[in-house]
Amino acid sequence: MKTWIFLLSLLLAGVVQAADKPPAVIALFQQHCVKCHGQGGKAKGDINLSTIRTIADLTANLEQLQAVIEAMDTGAMPPEKEPALSPGVRTATVKQLRHLLHAATLTQGFAPTPIRRMNRLQYNNAVQDLFGLKVMVFPLPERMMRDRSGYFQKALATPDNKMPQTITVSSRMLGKSALIEPRLAGVGPFPQDLRAENGFDNRGDHLSLSPILMEAFFRLSRRIVQSPNFDEKTVGIWKTFFSPPANGVDLETEVRKRLRSFLTRAFRRPVKDELLDRYTRHVTGRIEAGLGFTDAMKEAASATLASPRFLYLYNQVNSADGGVDHYDLATRLSFFLWGGLPDEPLMQLASSGKLSDPKVLEAQVNRMLGDPKLKRFCDSFPSQWLQLDRIVSSLPDEETYADFYYAPPNYRTSMDMMMEPLLLFETVLIENRSILEFIDSNYAYRSTRLRKWYGDKVDGKLGGPVSMQFKRHPVTDRRQGGVITSAAVMTMTSGPTETKPITRGAWMASVIFNAPPEPPPANVPPLNSADEKKNLPLRERFAVHRENASCAGCHAKLDPLGFALENFDPVGRWRDHYENGHQVDSSGVLFRKHKFNNVIEFKDAILAEKDRFTRGLAKHLLSFALGREMTAADTPALDHIAAQTKGADYRLQTLIHEVTQSAPFVSQSRTVIQKKPRPKD
Questions:
Q1: Would you call 403 exposed, middle or buried from its count of C-beta atoms within 10 A (0-12, 13-18, 19+)?
Q2: Of 192, 338, 219, nearest to 268 (Cα)?
Q3: Diameter over CA atoms, the chain
Q4: Does pTM top 0.85 for this prediction?
């Protein structure tokens, strides 16, 4: 059946031809591509097209096919020095190749979502959920913005989900704002989990659990339950779990009852009797040996926190249809949008087997998008997607940009800068606005200090560094607005004294279009200092890189993206001329088809490619939701997500709904695979 579906798809795509005539797309490869990709043993980019003679050859390597599609679709291939394809031929070829890729994926399964442990933020959230904890477990510097006015919950509570006009936040860069937050005394965090390259900090291939770290988790679990303020004031389940039962109650029955509910919540599925018996015997045995009831239950709680069943996120396959087990689907949903444990409604729907029903799933996602725990998603995804952690280490030259450092010991304007894109993301999410506002918005949340930085006339005090007041202001100058021209992005992609067009271009390619460039080769020559002494413009100083054969491909891709932003100096302020007097040239061509002369026209060029941006953001979100890299097998799902989002005016909540309804999200694999044994305690 799969073979007939595959052949039918090829016929519909128009790529199956007479036996004595090679398919048109393969003939095109032989005419335009094999010179650099196969002929004479050359295989640039590790892509060899000379051996492809049939459609079967072409679809044997889907990752290579995906790379070919992207190169042709973006205009990167054929290179500028080679004869160009006509727009009609390029469009038709890309369309045919996509048909082939979609058809070929029908016979292949998705990459399985890997088993992985919780990262540090997820662990904190899960412990809070499990105990109903009213304080933080430990300081979390990765939470870059803290709500000091309750604006997030207020916005969700309004009938139209409208963000307040004025909000108060604090930055994590000070460090003090994290330390003054209520938390468990004497509990220190384990090391922060780093982002994967061009990815997120929840990637399964990065979240291992060594014996040393396992021991650290065990010690951490002990410190949590033994913390001086882990008591009835901070623990929401204290009375129902830790408090001794009334006299006359059968001890074993009561302990078993309490543990069943607790372990089911902790392990995100009903606990088996065998495991429940082990925990019950331990607690009752410790009580019989003279330990107090509360302390015995704390021991059980500590063992639960150190259990692989709690620490690990993993998925089982529903053998009936190949979809994700309903309890695992509930976990996948909750860790995606809430960064923590599924609540009772999700668990009940998982128990009934109804959660995977599309309408039920949609209703639950709507409920989750209206819950204050959505702030956890905002604490994690946008800062990683935008790579805002880089601004922490951005240190503009203190002499050249003295006003960047406004108070000792190290209060920097970057503390205000990083809030702007984060608040824009939250506004688009809560108000369900178009994702195109990430490219070009007519409003922004800015502090008084930040408004002055952008050149606005302001009155009154600029505000202090601990808590900052941000107000929603209209943006009438299209050079501003959105995230790509924000002061935060411009500053973090610059050096101490000059901008870095290639760094900015790489950020654009990775973040906006989700097409990260390959790492630069080891032998990249540095910029010629003699050219700087000759007072040459920056574009000309980069000429040697563009002439280098190993660098030309990346420069053709990155230069238009990076130099388009050159009017913004190393701290994100507008300039028309460099310090040496040369006029800034920000003109270029996007994807070799959209010419622009300034940053406003550059934004228009990106908006002309809004479907490409939508698909790139969908890819970021799905990767974050699944904790893995995207593969060619995910292509049909990503194309469908992007198309559905386009049909709903590019609304962010629609994009999230489509991610949670997508085949990779609700399935472990297209093909039914054997269930793996569950991890043992």
A1: exposed
A2: 338
A3: 92
A4: yes
